[in-house]
Amino acid sequence: MSYSILETIGNTPLVVSKKLNPNPNVMLYFKMEGHNPGGSVKDRAALSMIKGGLERGDFNKNSRLIEATSGNTGIALAMIAGLYGLDIELVMPENSTKERVQTMRAYGAKVTLTPADVGIEGARDYAEAKVAKEGFYMINQFSNDDNWKAHYHSTGPEIWRDTQGEITHFVSSMGTTGTIMGTSTFLKEKNSQIQIVGVQPSDDAKIPGIRKWPVEYLPKIFDPKKVDSVLEVSEKEAIDMAKRLAKEEGIFAGMSSGGAAAAAIKLAQTIDSGVIVSIICDRGDRYLSSDLFL
């Protein structure tokens, strides 16, 4: 049987924590999104946003697409845009790891780097200016309903299926918030008692892929009613847990995954029993040029 590379997106493994789980009455699972072909959970949203835009006629093969990204969405969009023959420019802060930039270029995308001191907000402003002045079409993951719907149709159902409906808590880092919005919507339809736990950085912590957005940049797809509680993690907690995931669980992932796992472990210490699923959103190899694993 032969598959398109796009058919390998989703149905990622759910693996049980063997070492880090602090509570014997809790089952702690990690959803291994690095197994997607583009290496992250963002493959799901990128495919959904590109397919949806093409089907609605929002853009076509003559359009010039643009998107601001901190990395994983850009890689996914570069891969999928290339498969559809689309022209895309990806905008990201200049302090992004070289692995991310090189991967996007390998897939055929144009990459523009914006000043590090203005962060992803500056990249978003740059992209919006190109839309206004030069006729680009922005995918706009922050307000695109196809982002969260990807997880409503895939991530949520997979977790429900693979836990046999026994999940009690879902833990996810919050960036664009597409993963937590879509998964929450599905799981709450199945069982309104399932607790949805978002993960944000503590004040002044810089954790790629997790954000505490200023009000003017808050993703439009975000609905706070779909998140039952928010746990904050520090930069040190996220880094330390990314290292522990690799050394103790054999899970090689990035800093935002470390943050989510740290929050899931905190949560496990506070409940009597339950089934927790935490998103491992990408692979660690795209952070090797950073000091994450030094």
TrEMBL record:
Question: What does the UniProt keyword field contain?
Answer: Acyltransferase, Amino-acid biosynthesis, Cysteine biosynthesis, Pyridoxal phosphate, Transferase
Q: Name one GO molecular function term.
A: acyltransferase activity
Provide the protein name.
Cysteine synthase
Q: Which cofactor(s) does the record list?
A: pyridoxal 5'-phosphate
A Pfam family of the record is PALP
Q: What is its EC number?
A: 2.5.1.47
Q: Which NCBIfam families match?
A: cysKM (TIGR01136), cysM (TIGR01138), PRK11761.1 (NF008735)
Q: Which InterPro entries match?
A: Cys_synth, Cys_Synth/Cystath_Beta-Synth, CysM, P-phosphate_BS, TrpB-like_PALP, TrpB-like_PALP_sf
Q: Which organism is it from?
A: Arenibacter antarcticus
Ranges of residues in domain Tryptophan synthase beta chain-like PALP: 6-282
Matching entries from SUPFAM superfamilies are given as: Tryptophan synthase beta subunit-like PLP-dependent enzymes
Show the catalytic activity. Answer: O-acetyl-L-serine + hydrogen sulfide = L-cysteine + acetate
Q: Which domain of life is it from?
A: Bacteria
Looking at the keywords, is Transferase present? Answer: yes
Q: Which family does it belong to?
A: Belongs to the cysteine synthase/cystathionine beta-synthase family.
**Where in this chain does the entry annotate a coiled-coil region?**
none
Q: Where does this protein act, in terms of pathway? A: Amino-acid biosynthesis; L-cysteine biosynthesis; L-cysteine from L-serine: step 2/2
Q: What class of enzyme is it?
A: transferase
